[in-house]
TrEMBL record:
One Pfam family of this chain: TatD_DNase
Family to which this protein belongs: Belongs to the metallo-dependent hydrolases superfamily. TatD-type hydrolase family.
UniProt GO MF annotations: DNA nuclease activity; hydrolase activity, acting on ester bonds; metal ion binding
Protein name as annotated: Hydrolase TatD
Keywords tagged on the record: Hydrolase, Metal-binding
Lineage: Bacteria, Pseudomonadati, Bdellovibrionota, Bdellovibrionia, Bdellovibrionales
Gene3D superfamilies on file: Metal-dependent hydrolases
CDD domains, per database record: TatD_DNAse
InterPro entries (alphabetical): Metal_Hydrolase, TatD-like, TatD/YcfH-like
Binding-site list for a divalent metal cation 1: 7, 9, 92, 202
Residues binding a divalent metal cation 2: 128, 152
Length: 257
């Protein structure tokens, strides 16, 4: 079985990039997408993806926490590198009203501006949304049919899942689904169409059970995948093939062979 971790932060891992990739590949995680979150880390994630291509790819984007530092020049940088072979999406972008580390209007401006870049370049997006479901969907509806992508590390309501699916987005499931208090999330995951789901780690955050308490790493995506397969009544082999197919459809620049 060959897996892809569609959302990890390789530049944040204490074990180091090379060790993380080696450990992931040793358990069948053959591809990793490492995520850009702010202008300061874009050169680094590009360098990592270039060094380890075609096993590692990257996204470029400004996280809602950093919406206040989004500028036209940052957007031009993302757009300029959108054609690079290792850049597979715009992200991580979106809205976060839980921490509100950037003013709401700055978050919305950065979100819309980066969705425009995705529309222009044809890249999918990886979206972060927390306590901002209605505004996230409202903005995504403005781009319905022009931009597709993934709600990453989905922890939202069934309403958000259904609305996201309706607007053409897929759902990516992290280790949160394994947590003791995640019953409502598990109920939502059960109803998701299998051809619209992905698995991810969001490493180094949110290690799944039975790895809780440790720093997350791409190799641990298998624990989440096994849990999701059981939750949906699928064999692990079936989920593996389906999520691989979903990823190749969503991120066509990923080269599997």
């Amino acid at each position: 079985m060959e897996w892809i971790d569609i959302h990890a932060h390789l530049n944040m891992l204490e074990e180091g990039v090379e060790a993380a990739i080696h450990n992931a590949q040793s358990v069948g995680v053959k591809k990793i997408i490492t995520i850009g979150t702010d202008p300061g880390d874009h050169p680094l994630v590009l360098d990592i993806a270039r060094k380890y291509y075609p096993d590692v790819y990257c996204t470029l984007g400004v996280h809602p926490h950093d919406g206040k530092v989004y500028t036209e020049d940052v957007g031009k940088f993302i757009e300029m590198h959108a054609t690079d072979r290792e850049v597979v999406a715009v992200g991580e972008i979106g809205l976060d009203y839980y921490y509100n580390q950037s003013p709401v209007e700055d978050q919305k401006h950065a979100f819309r501006a980066q969705l425009e870049i995705a529309k222009l370049t044809g890249l999918p997006v990886e979206i972060h949304t927390r306590d901002a479901e209605a505004d996230t969907i409202e903005i995504l509806k403005e781009f319905k049919g022009d931009v597709r992508g993934v709600i990453h590390c989905f922890t939202g309501t069934e309403w958000l899942a259904k609305e996201a699916l309706d607007v053409g987005f897929n759902i990516s499931i992290s280790g949160v689904v394994t947590f003791k208090n995640a019953d409502s999330l598990r109920d939502t995951v059960k109803m998701l169409p299998v051809d619209r789901i992905h698995v991810e780690t969001d490493a180094p955050f949110l290690a799944p059970i039975p790895m809780r308490g440790k720093k997350n790493t791409p190799a641990y995506v298998l624990h989440t995948a096994e849990f999701v397969a059981n939750l949906k009544g699928l064999s692990i082999e079936t989920l593996c093939e389906q999520t691989k197919k979903n990823a190749l459809d969503m991120f066509p620049k990923v080269q599997w062979n």
